Amino acid sequence: MGNFKKLRVWQLSKNLAVKIYQVTDEHTKFKQDFRFRDQIRAAAVSVPSNTAEGDELDTNKQSIRHFYIAKGSTAEVITQLIIAQEIGYLPPKITEELIKEYEHVSHMLAKLITARSKTP
């Protein structure tokens, strides 16, 4: 506990949040849809933020709660990516790549939750 920057899941999710910002800046339709753009960005930032906060908390129970929130945010981003692709905001290739990366982060969070659940 306490050094979230060393957690691989934090590093990956932080990098993905940066990618989401870049993707939503590069694609014109996102620039015009402020609400949707802001919502996907907020969900993306929530993943590393809750992972960091969870790692810094005093008890595993508190930590696990935040890791679950981060995991839920991965599902939120994936859902928004699917919608973005279906309404023509993102090309399928970019969407598929980002979804794979978010699924990987979700899997890593599940493992972190399991590990913290077993630790007294």
The CATH topology, please?
de novo design (two linked rop proteins)
Question: Which value, in Å, is the CA radius of gyration?
Answer: 15 Å
Question: Are there runs of 5+ residues with pLDDT below 50, and where?
Answer: none
CATH superfamily descriptor? 23S rRNA-intervening sequence
Reading the helices and strands in chain order gives HHHHH
Output mean pLDDT.
Answer: 95
Total domain units: 1
Quaternary state of the chains = single chain
Shape: elongated
Strand-pairing-aware structural class: mainly alpha
**In CATH's first tier, which class applies?**
Mainly Alpha
Beta-strand proportion: under 5%
Protein name: Four helix bundle protein
InterPro entries: 23S_rRNA-intervening_sequence, 23S_rRNA_IVS_sf
Element layout with pairings:
Elements: H1 8-26, H2 28-32, H3 34-56, H4 60-86, H5 92-118
InterPro entries: 23S_rRNA-intervening_sequence (IPR012657), 23S_rRNA_IVS_sf (IPR036583)
Protein name: Four helix bundle protein
